Amino acid sequence: MNNLKPQLISASLLILTLANIANAAPVTYSGSKGQYTVDREAGTYKGSKVYIYEKNKEIFQDSFVNTQASAAKPTTPEVKYGLITPKCIDSACLGMTFGQLKAKLGKKVTFIESNSKDMRGFYKIITVFQDNKEQYKLYFDGHSKPVKNDYIIDHIETSNTNYRFKSGIGPGSSIINAQKVYGKGTFRLHKFDGYTEEFVDFNTQCIAFKVKPISGIYTQKRSRHNKEYSIETKKFKPNTVIDKVLIFEPCGG
């Protein structure tokens, strides 16, 4: 790099005028012939040239960009999130048939079927994968046979952190941040026939926020031998995050 103390001139040379030149700390410019430092900030002029003089003799000229100005404004790639609403998670909506969703998604996804049992009952589940990553689960209530195209989607659940409400809250969000949006929540821990799950209730109709048991701080006594119990608290571990978001009927009706 050549460290020079040039004079930048002039209006008669077309490119830089005295109005362009303001006193500033030395700035590094990069051109087709290499890099060099000048004492004055002349701005960034696409396709322009800088003329460097020493003792009234031109010793250098080149096209330039202000490399320091470019470095001062780094760009951050924008992350695009799928939208969660009380009725839909991305393309999947409550009340939609499985066949309708398949037609909407096309061949870009994979469906894997399984069974589930929780405190609400028995379900057939279709897990939707795209690019080998789980997107969300579709719940079909009360069915024991393989899922058919006319089955109605009753619940949709996602743990994928690429899905968010308009508020910015979604899987992976801290409960502390969620409370800033929805207010103080109530933690509810349920145990039924050996199945345990924990939710945070923000009084959001048709939306459930699951956390990993046990995230709440409960004072009620409970025995591991009890087959059923349901307890609640307002207190929770400060590092608790939303594990899953679940939307369910009747909001799809």
Task: Explain what this protein looks like in three dimensions.
With 253 residues, this protein is mainly β. The protein has three domains: 2-71, no CATH class; 82-163, no CATH class; 168-247, no CATH class. Helix content is 8%, strand content 42%. The strands form five sheets. A nine-stranded antiparallel beta sheet has the order 10-11-12-13-19-17-16-15-18, with no helix packed on it. A four-stranded mixed beta sheet has the order 1-3-2-6. The radius of gyration is 31 Å and the shape is globular. The model is unreliable at 1-24, 40-48 and 66-72 (pLDDT under 50).
Quick overview:
The chain has 253 residues and is mostly beta strands. Helices cover 8% and strands 42% of the residues.
Estimated share of beta-strand residues: 35-45%
Taken from the alpha-carbon principal axes, the silhouette is globular
Helical segment count: 3
Order of helices and strands: EEEEEEHEEEHEEEEEHEEEEE
Parts with pLDDT < 50 across at least 5 consecutive residues: 1-24, 40-48, 66-72
Broad structural category? mainly beta
The termini sit apart by: 69 Å
Approximate helicity band = under 10%
Q: Tell me the number of structural domains.
A: 3
Taking the sheet with the most strands, its summary is: 9 strands, antiparallel
Average pLDDT across residues? 78
